[in-house]
């Protein structure tokens, strides 16, 4: 039955290296270091993609886009998210709420988080108030605090896509 809400969680981390492009939530951020990854290393899109896949029973990002597969080398992670949304939709679900946290010492994300949020809302087809982006630092602790890694967390809520029958019964109420 497709009538119950589904919830999914995603977590992703990447090593940061000097001279790499820094893309987060599909937004390119000026930075002297960026995430190392087989794809573009967009930890935030990877966490959201995993949360959606998990919520609709479609496995995880590594199953779908193996880091050992050359076809995903330097891939734009927006394509991963689009595929997760397509799979959710094929199972009769759509995201209605997405909340995220990015933990990074560098670059400082505070000035960028609203832009990232707006970009995510566009990609997810959601109004801005259903998408959250929190930017945290690690207070200098551990590899993230030392600027050597970045981490992103995401939680998504999926609801069944209303059918024509649902619409009709609502119109008749
Ligand atoms: Mg990743």
Give a brief outline of the structure.
The protein is of the alpha+beta class and 173 residues long. Helix content is 32%, strand content 28%. Strand 5, helix 4 and strand 6 form a beta-alpha-beta unit.
Model description:
It contains 6 helices and 7 strands. It has helices spanning 43-55, 61-64, 78-90, 113-124, 142-145, 164-172; strands at residues 6-18, 23-24, 27-28, 33-35, 93-103, 131-136, 149-160. The chain has one domain (6-172): 2-Layer Sandwich (60s Ribosomal Protein L30, Chain: A). The strands form 2 sheets. The protein has a 5-stranded mixed sheet with strand order 4-1-7-5-6. The chain has a two-stranded antiparallel ribbon with strand order 2-3. The radius of gyration is 17 Å and the shape is globular. The protein has 173 residues and is an alpha+beta fold. The structure holds magnesium ion. Residues 12, 14, 37, 43, 46 line the site of magnesium ion.
Characteristics:
single chain; 173 residues; alpha+beta; 60s Ribosomal Protein L30, Chain: A; five-stranded mixed beta sheet; two-stranded antiparallel sheet; 28% strand; globular; binds magnesium ion
In one word, what is the shape?
globular
Based on secondary structure, the structural category is alpha+beta
Radius of gyration: 17 Å
Proportion of beta-strand residues: 25-35%
Which residues form runs of ≥5 with pLDDT under 50? none
Bound molecules: magnesium ion
Assembly type of the shown chains? single chain
Distance between the termini: 24 Å
CATH top level is Alpha Beta
**CATH topological fold name:** 60s Ribosomal Protein L30, Chain: A
> What's the helix-strand series?
EEEEHHHEHEHEH
Q: Helix segment count?
A: 6
DSSP E strands, number: 7
Mean of residue pLDDT? 93
Percentage of helical residues? 25-40%
Quickly count the domains: 1
How would you characterize the largest beta sheet? 5 strands, mixed
Relevant CATH superfamily? 2-C-methyl-D-erythritol 2,4-cyclodiphosphate synthase
């Amino acid at each position: 039955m497709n009538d119950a809400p589904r919830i999914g969680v995603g977590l992703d981390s990447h090593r940061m290296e000097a001279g790499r492009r820094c893309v987060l939530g599909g937004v390119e951020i000026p930075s002297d270091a960026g995430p190392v990854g087989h794809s573009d290393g967009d930890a935030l899109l990877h966490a959201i993609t995993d949360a959606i896949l998990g919520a609709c029973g479609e496995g995880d990002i590594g199953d779908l886009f193996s880091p050992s597969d050359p076809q995903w080398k330097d891939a734009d992670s927006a394509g991963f998210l689009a595929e997760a949304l397509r799979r959710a939709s094929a199972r009769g679900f759509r995201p209605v709420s997405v909340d995220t946290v990015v933990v990074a010492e560098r670059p400082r994300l505070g000035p960028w988080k609203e832009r990232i949020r707006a970009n995510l809302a566009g990609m997810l087809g959601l109004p801005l108030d259903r998408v959250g982006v929190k930017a945290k630092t690690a207070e200098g602790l551990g590899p993230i605090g030392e600027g050597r890694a970045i981490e992103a967390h995401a939680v998504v809520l999926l609801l069944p896509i209303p059918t024509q029958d649902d619409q009709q019964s609502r119109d008749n109420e």
